[in-house]
Design brief:
The protein is of the alpha+beta class. The protein is built from 7 helices and 5 strands.
Length: 203
């Protein structure tokens, strides 16, 4: 086969000129590092199809069961704290309002204040029981925002440790979780301040 590098801008591959921009060959990474996670789409889409109202919402159903069964670590007046059933790291918590509302703008001042307070307490408790070096906090709003269950607002609290983003999730789509959900729930619940207020001290 004739080498077309001379007729194709010096490229050793025929036809490259038609698909190559002025920077690099097609497929060569630019300055952004991208981690493609298409497997997450099934989880996101599945959550939306399964939850059509408060009658089939797992976050609405959870408070009606025992703490152990629902993996709840604390119940507040307007919101509760529950373990994520599919954690990114051990101790991955969710703060959910009891009301079945989808958007952060849907909650009132009392709910907003308690969600913030419970988030602070959760961070203090996780620091006490597992000594993370950092946290990821956030709310995925709507399907396009990546929410697994977009119909019921929930805030993520993910404890982080150095080296927890190793090669396993990237190469093998496998996350090593060091404790069972039941053990984590008991540990966090036992360490939760008696009053449950976000203004409790860390002692």
């Amino acid at each position: 086969m004739e080498n077309s590098s001379q007729d194709d801008g010096g490229s050793p591959y025929p036809g490259d000129a038609a698909v190559t921009d002025s920077f690099e060959l097609a497929g060569v990474p630019d300055s952004f590092a991208r981690l493609w996670t298409p497997h997450r789409l099934a989880y996101i889409k599945g959550g939306q199809e399964q939850v059509s109202s408060e009658h089939n919402c797992p976050f609405c159903a959870a408070p009606g069961r025992s703490d152990e069964e629902s993996l709840i670590v604390h119940r507040g007046k307007y919101a509760f704290v529950i373990l994520n059933l599919f954690p990114y790291n051990a101790g991955h918590l969710l703060v959910c309002p009891y009301r079945h509302v989808p958007d952060y703008t849907d909650i009132d001042e009392q709910e907003t204040a308690e969600i913030a307070s419970l988030t602070q307490t959760a961070m203090r408790v996780l620091r006490k029981v597992s000594n993370p070096s950092g946290f990821n906090l956030g709310m995925n709003q709507g399907v396009t925002g990546g929410a697994g269950i977009a119909a019921h607002l929930h805030q993520h609290i993910v404890p982080r440790w150095g080296g927890d983003g190793n090669f396993l999730p990237i190469i093998a789509q496998t996350k090593a979780i060091t404790q069972t959900l039941g053990d984590v729930r008991q540990q966090v619940a036992d360490a939760w301040p008696v009053s449950g207020s976000g203004q409790d001290s860390e002692d």
